[in-house]
Amino acid sequence: MPFKYFDNLWNQNSANLEKQKMHWDARAKEFNEYRQQTSEEKVAKLLGFFNQYKISLENLDILDIGCGAGQFSLEFAKQAKSVTGLDISTQMIEYANHNAQTERITNVQFLELPWENIDLATLGWHKKFDLTVAIMTPAINSRQSLERMMEATKGYCFMSGYLERHEKVKQEIEQNVLHREPRKPDHGRSIYCSFNILWLYGIHPEISYHSMERENDRTVEEAFAYYCAQLEMKNALKDAEKDAIRVYLEKIAQNGRVKDIFKSKTAWLFWKNTSNNSPLTNK
Fold first, then answer.
1. What is the three-class DSSP state of 96?
2. Greatest CA separation found in the chain?
3. DSSP per-residue string spanning 47-92
4. 236 or 88: whose pLDDT is higher?
5. Contacts for 176 with CB less than 8 Å, ≥ 6 apart
6. How far is residue 242's CA from residue 190's CA, in Å, rounded to a whole number?
7. Is 268 helix (H, G, I), strand (E, B) or coil?
């Protein structure tokens, strides 16, 4: 099968796992707070999507790759037979476990494991799950990680990712503080490669598009940590650059808070696995 083109394209998106872990650890508190505000609404939208295909979570074993603080895992667990959530971030997993205990949800387990390095055979996870989801996570970042997702699943797979993402303050920092053109992120590459690789396996996934706009409201310190983490995903910032970013944020803050408009477009991919389109049977 002509996978080489997509392998080469996707490998340009490889990221250092340790940097990713640091990034998500730094954002865990914010994600946990955001989860408390939006979980029910977001899960309801996703469940409505599944209902279109007459899929109920009842009696399903679900795997949530890149589960974060448990935003979807905990809501899924209220209906499903069991849920397993994985994340690379120690802090995210700690929040997820705390949330499960607080809400007395006992049919969910959270594991600190990077999907990129997971061994399905050792864990006994070959075709274990009825539904596997990878929701807005960078963990599906290669053909191998996508195939691993399929091999863990005996039923359905769902993944979502950014196509576009805009943050006004981040762009201003790059232009006015770092004096460079805003970097063009490779949003959409994972969705593009996944769709085409699935097609090569004879799978024709459903695809839909969703737009969102919200205002983020952070303290100066929270904003400083967030923008530095975002800008350091590929290259470290110098101390002088960090100092300049802090000064800029203090300058634009109102009453000690930095507000930013976040706009995004995401794509949802959904498909059913069968024995005929298993990656192992096609090699």
1. helix
2. 60
3. HHHHHTTT---BT-EEEEET-TTTHHHHHHHTTBSEEEEEES-HHH
4. 88
5. 248
6. 30
7. strand
CATH 3.40.1500.20 at 4-167+185-216+263-275, yes or no: no
pLDDT in tens, 239-273: 999 999 999 999 999 999 999 998 989 999 999 98
Rounded to whole angstroms, how far apart are CA atoms 1 and 200?
7
Residue 173's closest CA among 112, 224, 123?
224
Is the pLDDT at 181 greater than 70, yes or no?
yes
d(C-alpha 106, C-alpha 177), whole Å:
48
272/73 Cα distance (integer angstroms)? 20
Position of tokens 């594991």? 111
pTM of the model: 0.85
What 3-state class would DSSP assign to 45?
Answer: helix
Residue 211: both structure tokens together: 């737009």
Residue keyed to tokens 């006992």: 106
Contact 49, 270 (CB under 8 A): yes
Q: Which two tokens stand for residue 81?
A: 């037979």
| Strand pairing report for 82-87 and 108-112 | parallel
Strand partners, 266: 162, 210
> For the chain, how big is the Rg over CA atoms in Å?
19
- Per-residue pLDDT tens for 194-207? 999 999 999 999 99
Closest to 189 in 3D by CA, of 157, 148, 146, 158: 146
Residue 239 pairs with which residues in a beta bridge? none
| H/E stretch holding 108 | strand 108-112
Q: Can you give the pLDDT at residue 100?
A: 96
